[in-house]
Amino acid sequence: xxxxxxxxxxxxxxxxxxxxxxxxxxxxxxxxxxxxxxxxxxxxxxxxxxxxxxxxxxxxxxxxxxxxxxxxxxxxxxxxxxxxxxxxxxxxxxxxxxxxxxxxxxxxxxxxxxxxxxxxxxxxxxxxxxxxxxxxxxxxxxxxxxxxxxxxxxxxxxxxxxxxxxxxxxxxxxxxxxxxxxxxxxxxxxxxxxxxxxxxxx
Length: 202
Known about the structure:
The chain is an alpha+beta fold. Helix content is 36%, strand content 15%.
């Protein structure tokens, strides 16, 4: 399913992030996006990030902490990952309520800065030049292409479209029912002799 992700968090090289994972007894990503359907409870990376924030005193929603890896269509694997403290997927279009803080957190949650510093500690001079990125560790608001997102994903737009269609069908059904209810009863009673007394009561 095609998707774009808008997120708040920081960028980190895949090389540094993979070293962080190995140090915590997890497999490297090698620049391959995780199965997002496993987030937040079955994805080991999401669990690790949430645990690190919690250990540093954070109490924010575990769903906010995850790693987003861009998909490079027709190219090499990504050399950058994004560690989030808030994210929203966009399938085709979406209104973002940033001022109210409803779609993305307005402030950095407690414990996230400690997580950022720990992951950044794995960005060292022994990382090959080709694997390094510009502005490593920089916090910001990012838009990331995650086309071909791995795992089950139903965008918010689809839910809204289905909800609107359902309301429309319900309205039409109510109109048809109210207009044709008496006709249906009359036709049925004419066909069934046993219901003629019922017809006289209506």
